[in-house]
Amino acid sequence: MAAASTLQILFKPYKSSRNPYHNPRRNYSRFMCSVASQSTPKSYKITLIPGDGIGPEVISVAKETLQLVASQEGIQLQFHEVLLGGAALDSTGVPLPDETLSAARQSDAVLLGAIGGYKWDKNEKHLKPETGLLELRAGLGVFANLRPATVLPQLADSSTLKKEIAEAVDIMVVRELTGGIYFGKPRGFGTNDNGEEIGFNTEVYSSSEVDRIARVAFEIARKRRGKLCSVDKANVLEASMFWRKRVTKIASDYPDVELSHMYADNAAMQLIRDPKQFDTIVTNNVFGDILSDEASMLTGSIGMLPSASIGESGPGLFEPIHGSAPDIAGQDKANPLATVLSAAMLLRYGLGQEQAAQRIETAVLETLNKGFRTGDLFSTGKNNMSRRKRY
């Protein structure tokens, strides 16, 4: 089966379930390949990118999980592993080999472990592992990054906040992924009129870039609790003033969604003070990068959070939001659940296999119910487990 020709938004309510990921209270939406709504062969090409650090370890567990679920659901998955980031630099001299981008584009979905590490920190920008990831996202045309932050009942005590503040938190951060200051030009180094060295970047967004991410966020909010908070710095940044103007304009098409605006610094504070006030958050690339990492700590560990990056055409990119953690790589300590849950998002959003996705999520919940924890979640009275423990 070739990669989907079009990736479009299909809005369907959750089925009633006791699984917290599928709480009918949310009436949450799904993104799926257009082909997923049609009668298609259950055979898919999955590009695996282990990457660096703990990436190969967590991808190994996710692959094993996908294989097991595929056998239970009668799905055929063809896996192809490629290089990205530091591993690609060491092998080919570039962070994103042509073979990797070609394989990713020809697949139905891409699952990534993690990239980066101390070894390559001093490389020039074009030879940094992170550059390869940015180029991969751009090459796939993914622009919407979905990052759920749900505090599961089993992990409410693991949150860095008091239980009464953290419990029942259920936030979806919708981050614009391919625009803004990470990609804006001009950028670089130079000297100012006084002869001092300077570094500079440019935050720039077009109307089409803001409009499309806003629509994604409004559609998601519509199927959740009908509340959307747009985060910007419109009090000081022209790019944010423009962002707010466009989001407000799009809001007229969604009268059933309550839109609010919040400055990024206040949003960072409110996520700690009263996180339950948020339902769906939409924001630009750099603010989304920061705020989604902050939101991750509400859940107890960044090792629990998956993400999906999707575009208007071609395969989606699914990855945990944690880094490569080179300090624990190879020690069997890494929490694989964010990658396993990313695999569930891959099944749901990338392949349209809802039942298979729910199988994985239910297995994760049952593992937590039994008291098993990796080191990042470990607490007194629980059973410490390695990444290889079958769940």
TrEMBL record:
Cleavable signal peptide: none
UniProt-listed Pfam families: Iso_dh
UniProt-listed PROSITE patterns: IDH_IMDH (PS00470)
InterPro entries referenced in this protein's UniProt entry, alphabetically: IsoCit/isopropylmalate_DH_CS (IPR019818), IsoPropMal-DH-like_dom (IPR024084), Isopropylmalate_DH (IPR004429)
Substrates-to-products reaction catalysed: (2R,3S)-3-isopropylmalate + NAD(+) = 4-methyl-2-oxopentanoate + CO2 + NADH
Isopropylmalate dehydrogenase-like domain mapped to chain residues: 45-378
Coiled-coil region: none
Subunit structure: Homodimer.
UniProt protein name: 3-isopropylmalate dehydrogenase
Source organism: Amborella trichopoda
